[in-house]
Amino acid sequence: MKRFIPILACVLFSMMAVGSDPVQIRVQLSAWWTPGVFVGHQVYYDMLKNEFLPAHPEIEIQHTYIPFAEIIPTILRGALVQDLPDVMYIDNPDVMYLAQAGALRDLTPWIEEWGQWEDFFVGSRYATTMNGRVYAVQYGTNNLALFYNKDYFELAGIKTPPQTWDELVETCRILAAKLPPGVYPFGVSAIDSDEGAWQFLAFLWSNGGSLLELDQPPAIEALRLWVDLVKNGFMPKDVVMWTQTMDLMEQFAAGRIAMMINGCWILPDLKARKINYGISYVPVPKAGLKPVVAIGGETFAISPFSPEDKARAAWEFIKFLTDAKNMARLCAALGYVPVRYSAVPLTLALNPELEVFAKQAETALPRPAMGGELKYPEVSAIMRRYVQKALVGDMTPEAAFTTAAKEIRALFTQDEYNKYAAQARELLAQVRGGK
User: Where in the sequence is the domain holding 341, given as residue range(s)?
Assistant: First the structure.
């Protein structure tokens, strides 16, 4: 009889839910998710239409779309008047900052009740946690790899993509002599946003450099590599204005660059354009080292101001998207890597092209943990500003990063700086390979 009471309660609740008005939740997404913009996102809408909403007639979803650069200011403004979408789509480095600002609901009790948190990658859990409390859940991650045009490689007689920095420079030299006029061997995104920082971090960290110690040789060497690629005509100065998706990918797709560093999310669009491309690991300074890239990917969080019924409905929605099977389907379509161990083989079975990115995800690091935690946005802004100054020739790599290092240190007390610098060194040592 004791077991009958909760069962009866569930039945009655279900009957009430069906008979009452549906709970409408607002789901805020990036403008990238606007229907028809990117190929892979259609899988998301199909999953909602065919699976989630029919299984949850008590829930209705209203979507809003915000340009990626406006997400944080929009959320902060909404938090001031306690009016936020029930589900918010935010980049993982912003979770800690928004949680401290009181803009995110503490999901820890529901996470513990769910009992599936241990299946998520350690890095993903770290990226969505502050002071031991969970404030968001990732549906997938992404990172960067080397894309190369196989037709251009064949034209130049190049058999394999470069694996090291020296091989990258040599490959650029060979390509430069064979490519049509106006085509560059290599390209990155070095724009003055976190896109540019995220790209540079793959070279900085792979060389053992630190955001908090930019005046040290590993960091200066990484910047010098990029500067030399521009000086030698292997990479255009325009990279300081290129976003990853709208600019860098378009340059590659149009055949104006032979190689680029870009993310797995562009795979659906590259496939749709029928480009003859290959994918390889981010080149490392020396053979035997592992590439160390930043953990990418966005998260879903819940407003702390949503009434309980809306918050519960929002949590059901997030659990649906981050179920291992659904995560695998969504990631395979979007060109993302899942953040659940159990979802990785499911995703690779659907999209084998993600293998390089999945392997690199094993050594990927969260940006805030490597760059002063809550002060990471300021650290990132300083670093990328001086990357740009070096690329356009206003400063040498040494002068640029010596100055940047002084400005970054000024953000912290001495104790804070020592703590975060040591943390970055420790995390990097854990994932780097070779000697």
Answer: 23-142+296-361
183 and 271 in a common domain? yes
| Residue 60 counted as domain residue | yes
Backbone angles phi and psi of 254, in degrees to 5: -85, 0
| Separation between Cα atoms, residue 167 and residue 153, nearest integer Å | 14
* CATH code for the domain of 241: 3.40.190.10
Rounded CA-CA distance 320/325 in Å is: 9
pTM: 0.83
One-letter amino acid of 268: P
107 and 228 in a single domain? The answer is no
SS3 content of the chain, % helix, strand, coil (to 5): 55, 15, 30
pLDDT in tens, the chain (435 residues): 333 333 333 433 443 444 579 999 999 999 989 998 888 899 999 999 999 999 999 999 999 999 988 999 999 999 999 999 999 999 998 999 999 999 999 999 999 999 999 999 887 898 899 889 999 999 999 999 999 999 999 999 999 999 999 999 999 999 999 999 999 999 999 999 989 999 999 999 999 999 999 999 999 999 999 999 999 999 999 999 999 988 999 999 999 999 999 999 899 889 888 899 999 999 999 999 999 999 999 999 999 999 999 999 999 999 999 999 999 999 999 989 999 999 999 999 999 999 999 999 888 898 998 999 999 989 999 999 999 999 999 999 999 999 999 999 999 999 999 999 999 999 899 888 644
DSSP 231: H
Does residue 391 contact residue 190 with C-beta atoms inside 8 Å? yes
Residue 32 in domain: yes
Cβ neighbours of residue 264 closer than 8 Å, sequence gap 6 or more: 142, 143, 145, 335, 336, 337, 353, 354, 357
